[in-house]
Amino acid sequence: MRVVQYWTRFVHAVALSVTAARGAEGLQQAPTPLPPPFLLGQSALRDGNPLAGYVEMLSLDSAYRSSPIFAKVYPEMRANLEEFLGMSRAGISALSFPAFRIGDALQPTPISPNFVPRPALDVFAERAARTRIVIWGEEHHLPQTRCLYEPLLRRLWDEGYRYFAAETFADTVMSPGFATPDYRSGLYLRDPVFAAAVRTAVSLGYKLVAYEETGRGPAGDNSYRDRRQAEHLKERVFDRDANARVLVIAGRGHASKVTAPDGWTPMASVLRQLTGIDPLTIYAPRMTERSTRGEEDGMYQYATARGLISQPTAFVDTTTGAILGQGQSLDAYVFWPRITIEDGRPDWMRACMDRRAVSVPAGLGSGSELLLAQAFVDGEPMTAIAADQIVFRASESPPVLMVAPGAYAIRVINQAGALMHGRHVNVPARGIVRD
Q1: Residues of each domain in the chain carrying CATH 3.40.50
Q2: Dist CA 415 CA 312 (whole Å)
Q3: Residue 317, strand partner residues
Q4: Which helix (H) or strand (E) segment is 302 a member of?
Q5: Would you call 279 helix, strand, or coil by DSSP?
Q6: Is residue 426 exposed (0-12), middle (13-18) or buried (19+ Cβ within 10 Å)?
Q7: Number of neighbours of residue 432 by Cβ within 10 angstroms
């Protein structure tokens, strides 16, 4: 469950890159050090063009893969960017990386007949009414595991929840008047699915709370980050509102309520101690589709083979009311449906998020040139995170954009940010919007 944290590796890679650059000073014809992959295309990114950095990354792909500094971290960095750009299988492929692989030859494992499948959203809304903290352990590599955020925020609002905290939030989200997520709002908010949840939270009236700890802490203190995260949440939520109810989005095992065997104290375990509140902890990463069946949890194989997972699902014990999870550390697993691609996009965008298709015209660009189709909420700047986006090659049949009903500005750009197509659309509650 516990993996080496992405940002730890990223910061370390940046430090090594800087050291290499300094070491090369004064040497004749010294090769230019490779920049960290996530620093590519920053100027274009600030202007709302995430494609430029990706194309530059691809041009340096072989160099990164052979780099002693970046070889181990580059594949995950690339996968992150591809997920943000709408590539539907990038995240599933990333879960085969050693840090995230849960097995190689796992076999189906029966689920006790006492456990029955129920819509996860209904189960979590019911259980949230019994506590004041809900902690969702997300899988950073799977936008699918974020598709319940919007409906969950609405259901929790009805239960009196008024705070929405996320590990990825930058402090800017707490600024007065914040309304639109952009490329400075937090790394994983670059995923349009996550950004859409933030828009929903703001529209409902939630107070957004950033709680990440950016300090390194004392050497050997592996719990420093989690401890400080929990302290930030207590200070920024419960010290100001003693009766607060909060939804917290954490990364993976930070949602665990139990101290690890090596002494690591996850954020959720510290927050429970600080507040005296037993949170509902939900774990989204494990019960998901993988690149091969042998890499999937045995219970996931069992449930999907029997057609039990047609929507995000939780299994509830009919005798005790317990939710199927990981003992005392994680209260509930979410079982996610297998993915089918429709018109170039994953079917969960329609089934889970109730998105509607907007066509993208063919015949743009030339040859194998990469293009980016984007849909922006009408009235938002194009430096905001798009409501949806998808990268494709000019030589291919364009995929569709998937958005909620409403008004949008549609555009297609190339890597230089040049406009290849633009129009405004009003997306109805039903049907596909064609050019």
Answers
A1: 115-333
A2: 36
A3: 115
A4: helix 298-305
A5: coil
A6: exposed
A7: 12
pLDDT at 206: 98
From residue 110, how far is each of 104, 298, 338 by CA, in Å?
18, 8, 18
User: Residues 239-261: pLDDT tens digits?
Assistant: 999 999 999 999 999 999 999 99
Cα dist from 288 to 101, 116, 295, 304, 418, whole Å: 12, 18, 10, 10, 38
Q: Which fold has domain 115-333?
A: Rossmann fold (3.40.50)
Both tokens assigned to 35: 């920049």
Give just the sign of the alpha carbon dihedral 342, 347, 351, 352: negative
Structure letter (DSSP) for residue 384: B
Q: Please enumerate in sequence order all residues whose Cβ is within 8 A of that of 288, keeping only pairs 6 or more positions apart, or say none.
A: 92, 95, 139, 142, 144, 145, 296, 300, 336
- For the chain, 435 residues long, the average pLDDT of each consecutive 10-residue run is 44 45 43 85 93 97 96 95 95 94 94 98 98 97 97 98 98 96 96 98 98 91 95 98 98 94 94 98 97 97 98 97 93 98 96 96 93 97 97 96 97 96 92 68
DSSP line for 207-274 = EEEE-------STT-TTHHHHHHHHHHIIIIITT-TT--EEEEEEGGGG--S--TTS---HHHHHHHH
Contacts 24+ apart (CB under 8 A), 65-73: 67/34, 69/13, 69/16, 69/17, 69/20, 69/34, 70/13, 70/17, 70/34, 70/36, 70/37, 72/9, 73/9, 73/10, 73/13
Greatest CA separation found in the chain?
Answer: 75
pLDDT computed for residue 1 by the predictor? 43
Residues of the chain with CATH 2.60.40: 355-427
- Rounded Cα distance between 91 and 366, Å, is 28
Q: Which two tokens stand for residue 385?
A: 């995170």
CATH architecture of the domain 355-427 equals Sandwich (2.60)
* Nearest-angstrom CA–CA distance, 377 and 202: 14
Give dist(CA 282, CA 358) in Å, integer. Answer: 33
Which residue shows structure tokens 């990463």?
285
Sheet hosting strand 388-393, strand order edge to edge: 388-393, 370-377, 406-414, 419-427
| Spatial distance between the Cα atoms of 19 and 14, rounded to a whole number of angstroms | 9
Cα 162 from Cα 246, distance rounded (Å): 6
Residue type, 152: L
What is residue 51's predicted lDDT score, i.e. its pLDDT? 97
Which pLDDT score, from 0 to 100, does residue 158 have? 98
Rounded to the nearest 10°, the torsion over CA 310, 313, 318, 320 is: 170
Six-digit token string for 145: 């595991």
